Amino acid sequence: MVKRICAVLLGLILSLSCFAVHASGAPEMAEEAYEDAYMEVEESLEMLKLDEELPEAIAVSGIADDSLPAKSAIMLDQVQGQVLYEKNADEQLPPASITKVMTLLLAMEELESGRISLDDVVVASDYAASMGGSQIWLKPGEEMTLNDLLKAVAISSANDASVAVGEHIAGTNDAFVDMMNIRAQELGMVNTHFINCTGLDEPGHLTTARDVAIMSRELMKHKRIRDYSTVWMDSLRGGETELVNTNRLVRFYNGSTGLKTGTTNGAGSCLSATAERDGLGLVTVVMGCPTSDERFASARSLLDYGFANYTSAPVPPIDNQLTPVKVIHGVESTVGITYEPPGNFVVDKRNAEAITQEITLVPDVEAPVAEGQILGKVEIIIDGNNVASYDLKAKTECGRMTVYKAFSKLLSALCNMAGREGAAPEESGEAEETGDASEAAPENASGENASDSGGNAADTPDANSGDNAPAAPNSGENMPGSNEGGASTPENNSGSANTGENAEADEDVMIQSSVAITLRAD
What is the band of 455 on the pLDDT scale with cuts at 50, 70, 90? Predict the structure, then answer.
């Protein structure tokens, strides 16, 4: 508390100094000194309130409500960017230190790309050390890790640390500001132009509540920022420099995840506040509030309204509504459909089933078809408004049928058919061998009986005479009767005949199919 009171006294001393400069006949210097003094006093007075509870919320009844004491405001969800509340959201205003949201965004992106590291040692330049307003009092040539500088920017809104971070990333402050403006245009922040990376008032340094919400939402996609934006208190230089978050929501609002305060004479009190509850993430921006209490009350009111009235709901699956698409002149007759639906959408809690979808899918497609080729589209509709869409794509590729491919398919089919026919005779041959064995057994048994009876028919001349030749035909006539259990009977051979007939039928069908395939390919 003593430190905070001293900070207030320092601010008052700076205020007196600006008047002294003005009296000396240097009005431009006096204006700059006054701006620094104003920010010092505002930040110091804010520090005296850090232990106080949040001010009472202001009643907000709907998206068109105009009860907030802010020049402009907006609230949207973090996932899809659906606007849930807005008030003069496109009015250009000075943003004060919520400018640093872009400074932090570029730092997070550079960290994730690997071009910089949290362990990098940054040397403070003369220009960085000269920054007024909120600061950590860097000295020219002082060394500090990038991690500590990011703490100072995110927690205490230090201007000198912000410039040092920008110079480390881009080489010079001007080059870094150029990066900020380029990234703003990439994000669609069409009403934003940055002059500096600190938020100090300068002519032309303007943005809107909508654009601030856009860059805040983008920053919150980087989970690492929460290591800084959710910290209430920390320190630097071995505990010599105390850091206290200027965003009281971090300490007192359930689900708060950040993000950035801002206060200047020209901007008034501004705040970009983020919070999450039960899977619903919200971004709220208020700009141009008359006092600090009113900015926190406004942001709290919007967040309360959002969490009370909205919920996060998934997009219903549509698999049972999709059928494969017919492929014309393709090697396959159809191709399956795949899709990647977007994340959850915010809907009114009183109408949680409000998400509907309109499916548009082509009835057929000409080959060749590439994997991932767009074949349709799904429009997501909430309360009669088209809020998003996603594509329906080919699940696999499908080549175009050609004469060569048709012939290859025919040849493959014929080979498979021949393989089946070759397997059938082998099975039939095995059956015949079994039949021969069964025939041999009775003959051998008969021979044995003849020898056992003592007969010498084999030794008599009549056995070898030509008179017995007709016996062969007679025995042949009896063969069908004697082979009733064998494999070579007409009944048993009927299966083989049928197999042949079926093979011929298969061949006819295959030839007809190949002709049809060839004709279709042509």
Answer: very low
φ, ψ for residue 152, nearest 5 deg: -65, -35
Cα(431)–Cα(452) distance, integer angstroms:
32
Average per-residue pLDDT for the chain: 79
Is the CB of residue 385 less than 8 Å from the CB of residue 352?
Answer: no
Which of 5-9, 247-251, 349-353, 439-443 is predicted least confidently?
A: 439-443
- Residue-level pLDDT at 382: 87
DSSP structure string for 162-210: HHHHHHHHHSSHHHHHHHHHHHHHHTT-TT-B-S-SS----TT-BB-HH
Altogether, the residues listed in the chain come to a count of 522
Place of tokens 């959850």: 344
Distance CA 89, CA 104 (A): 22
Number of Cβ atoms within 10 Å of the Cβ of 220 = 23
Element spanning 140, H or E: none
Return the closest-CA partner of residue 122 out of 138, 135, 109: 138
Cα gap 137→284, rounded to integer Å: 31
Instruction: Give buried/exposed letters for 168-199 (b at 16+ CB in 10 A, else e).
Output: bbbeebeebbebbeebbeebebebbebbbbbb
Q: Which tokens hold the place of 254?
A: 């359930």
DSSP 384-444: TEEEEEEEEEESS-BPBP-HHHHHHHHHHHHHHHHHHHHHHHHHHHHHHHHHHHHHHHHHH
For residue 88, which phi and psi values (nearest 5 degrees)?
50, 45
Using a 10 angstrom Cβ sphere, with 0-12 exposed, 13-18 middle and 19 or more buried, the burial of residue 484 is exposed
CA separation for the pair 14, 418 (Å, rounded)? 100
Question: How buried is residue 453: exposed, middle or buried, by Cβ count under 10 Å (0-12/13-18/19+)?
Answer: exposed
Please state the pTM of the whole predicted model. Answer: 0.69
Which tokens sit at 323? 């059928």
Helix residue ranges per DSSP H, 204-331: 209-219, 226-229, 249-252, 292-309
Give me the torsion for CA of 29, 31, 32, 34, rounded to 10°: 120
**Distance separating alpha carbons of residues 373 and 344, to the nearest angstrom:** 25
Which pLDDT score is estimated for 366? 94
For residue 324, the one-letter residue type is: P
Q: Which pLDDT score is estimated for 430?
A: 52
List pLDDT tens digits, range 191-219. 999 999 999 999 999 999 999 999 999 99
Task: Name which of 75, 86, 83, 89 is nearest 345 in CA terms.
Answer: 83
Catalytic residue list = 97, 100, 157
Coil/strand/helix, residue 90: coil
Where does residue 378 rank: exposed (0-12), middle (13-18), buried (19+ CB within 10 A)? buried
For the chain, percent of residues with pLDDT exceeding 90: 57
What are the structure tokens assigned to 344, written together? 């959850």
